[in-house]
Design goal:
Blueprint: H1 20-27, E1 34-35, H2 48-66, H3 76-88, E2 98-101, H4 103-115, E3 121-124, H5 130-137, E4 142-145, E5 154-159, H6 173-186, E6 189-193, H7 209-217, E7 225-230, E8 242-245, H8 248-262, H9 267-278, H10 281-306, E9 312-313, E10 321-325, H11 332-343, E11 345-346, E12 348-349, E13 362-366, H12 372-404
Parallel strand pairs: 1-11, 3-4, 3-5, 5-6, 6-7
Antiparallel strand pairs: 2-8, 7-8, 9-10, 10-13, 12-13
Helix pairs in contact: 2-9, 4-5, 4-8, 10-12, 11-12
The protein binds pyridoxal-5'-phosphate.
Residues 39, 103-105, 129, 131, 160, 165, 193, 195, 230, 232, 237, 242 line the site of pyridoxal-5'-phosphate.
């Protein structure tokens, strides 16, 4: 007999469900599938040898410290390096405004814990990063569309301004400024998820929301933006190293929550990362950018060459994602089923990325993992699946029109 667990779970669990995408990705782990589904960094870009050498060095020179507990706010030298980096990116600050988190995912969870009461409204873009919704859901918020009127119960707005997951979109400067104005007018906390900010491979950088906020408000202590950064997309996601840069009063509370949650991020991981980034980090970023630039260009070429009329897609200036929109009447989830069965090609349907009013005619394609030849072949196959459905829908429409005449 199974225990009646469902009755015993806390009320908040009614808001927490398995991610459709994670379930889907498990199915796609087969060698004969050409996949645009995984949104993970290309492992060929991990600085494996450097991390290996630095690990040995850290253990040899400072093993007792590296394997010991450490402070909840994070390693001072790592926080100082991040503060200097934030300062160079237009946010004058020091290590007191930085807390190290277990990836930016934990930052989102701690921010939800700190700011959200049940029923508070979180404003999000359409589409938005599913993992953020997963983190916030535990605090039982309602969701609203960032572009609609701001309800009185809105507390927080969550945005990915640079090369967003899943849309690949970059928010123009004017839109960032308008968002700050609206946040000020409605007393909103802004959460800036900068997970892909370092991966710009085209165009010119926009100032971060936090940089614009600091310029408007006069300093980080007067800002309303919480900046979430991460080393997952640049060094390695397995290190689980992210950070929040925010006014000290917010950081102090996040540190308390972090203490209650897991005490601190792995000391050895922080020490290794601090040494790895101290040398050659910018050259490493340039290599990543060149790599993703090539992959992104291969995908744009393939889409232009193969996709039937009526299909549109985003042209990202960085990051890992292209957002595809197919004509009305087609459905991303059904297309995936057909693409897997008929062409052994995979992607992620767009609908789960919407907190409100899901748009079924959308697909997320990642160009991070497949090489240029596979990108071309995968897009060609996907285009074939879409074209077949369009031809079918077209012939049905023509038939219906003839019938009516
Ligand atoms: C937009 C965005 N934010 C946050 C994360 C979480 O990354 P991490 O916790 O590894 O820093 C991801 C991961 O895919 C992401 O795409």
């Amino acid at each position: 007999m199974t225990a009646p667990w469902t009755d015993r779970f806390a009320d908040r669990m009614t808001h927490i469900r398995a991610s459709e995408i994670r379930e889907l990705l498990k199915l796609l782990d087969q060698p004969d599938i050409l996949s645009f589904a995984g949104g993970i960094p290309d492992p060929a870009l991990f600085p494996t040898e450097r991390i290996q050498a630095v690990c040995a060095e850290v253990l040899e020179q400072t093993g007792a410290q590296a394997l010991q507990y450490s402070v909840s706010e994070g390693l001072p030298e790592l926080r100082r390096w991040i503060a200097a980096r934030m300062t160079a990116d237009g946010v004058p600050c020091d290590e007191g405004t930085i807390v190290i988190t277990a990836g930016s995912q934990q930052a989102l969870d701690l921010i939800g814990k700190l700011f959200l009461n049940r029923g508070d409204v979180v404003l999000a873009e359409r589409p938005t990063y599913l993992g953020a919704l997963g983190a916030f859901n535990a605090y039982e918020p309602a969701y609203g569309d960032l572009d609609s009127e701001v309800p009185a119960s809105a507390r927080l707005a969550y945005v990915v301004p640079d090369f967003a997951n899943p849309s690949g979109r970059t928010m123009p400067r004017r839109e960032r400024e308008r968002l700050l104005e609206r946040a000020e007018a409605h007393g909103l906390v802004l959460v800036e998820d900068a997970a892909y900010r370092d991966l710009r491979f085209a165009g010119t950088a926009e100032p971060s929301l936090l940089a614009l906020d600091v310029a408007r408000s006069g300093g980080i202590e007067a800002a309303r933006t919480l900046y979430c950064g991460t080393f997952s997309k640049t060094l390695s996601p397995a290190l689980r190293l992210g950070w929040v840069c925010a006014p000290q009063a917010v950081i102090d509370k996040l540190v308390l929550l972090k203490q209650g949650c897991d005490l601190h991020v792995s000391t050895i991981n922080q020490m290794v990362a601090a040494r790895v980034i101290a040398e050659g980090y910018d050259a490493h970023l340039e290599r990543l950018r060149a790599h993703y630039r090539t992959r992104a260009a291969a995908m744009q070429d393939a889409l232009a060459r193969h996709m039937p009329l009526g299909v549109t897609w985003s042209k990202p200036q960085g990051g890992m994602f292209v957002w595809l929109t197919v004509p009305e009447g087609l459905d991303g989830a059904q297309l995936l089923e057909a693409a897997l069965a008929e062409e052994r090609v995979a992607f992620v349907p767009g609908a789960p990325f919407f907190a409100t009013d899901a748009q079924a005619t959308t697909l997320r394609l990642s160009y991070s993992l497949p090489g240029p030849a596979d990108i071309d072949e995968g897009v060609r196959r996907l285009a074939r699946v879409i074209a077949a459905r369009l031809a079918y829908a077209g012939s049905n429409a023509a038939w219906a029109a003839t019938g009516r005449a």
